[in-house]
UniProtKB/TrEMBL annotation:
GO terms for molecular function: structural molecule activity. This is Phage tail protein. It comes from Streptomyces violaceoruber. InterPro entries: CHP02241, Phage_T4_Gp19. It comes from the Bacteria. Pfam families: Phage_T4_gp19.
Length: 145
């Protein structure tokens, strides 16, 4: 019998990110997890009733992760700094956890490449929490148990 705890949706979630042996810490938001089938339109001679839509490949969107600035920002800076001396593509793991630390879901991203780091904007007119965002590209998902 399922309890309310087992079936509750993950309302308050954090995303723990690990890239091979590098733990980047927890993030508040995660955007862009998904993929799209790219279709190629083909017309058939003599058949004017429709155009064939043929699947050709999968296209993966970049993933953006954001959080308030913390000491874990140093880990992100170190990871980005390794790109200047050459790098090997790594596998990233994004684990969604509830507020009490229970794993809700996990995604493995293949051949991760860092795309962008955006730091906080400081303005005296609007005091807000200092946020950082990282954006990563990948070449597909690996399913894990």
């Amino acid at each position: 019998m399922a309890t309310a705890q087992d079936s509750d949706p993950a309302v308050s979630v954090c995303f723990v990110v690990t890239i091979d042996d590098i733990e980047l810490g927890s993030f508040n938001t995660c955007e862009g997890l998904g993929c799209e089938v790219v279709l190629e339109a083909r017309e058939e001679g003599g058949n004017n009733g429709h155009v064939w839509q043929l699947p050709t490949r999968l296209k993966y969107s970049n993933v953006k992760l954001s959080r308030p600035l913390t000491r874990e920002t140093e880990k992100v800076a170190r990871w980005f700094a390794t790109m200047t001396t050459g790098f090997s593509r790594k596998t990233a793991h994004i684990e969604a956890r509830t507020g009490d630390g229970r794993k809700v879901a996990q995604w493995g991203l293949l051949e991760v490449v860092p795309v962008r780091w955006t730091g906080p904007s400081f303005t005296p007119e609007s005091p807000k929490v200092a946020m950082e965002t990282i954006e990563i590209a990948h070449h597909g998902y690996v399913m894990e148990g």
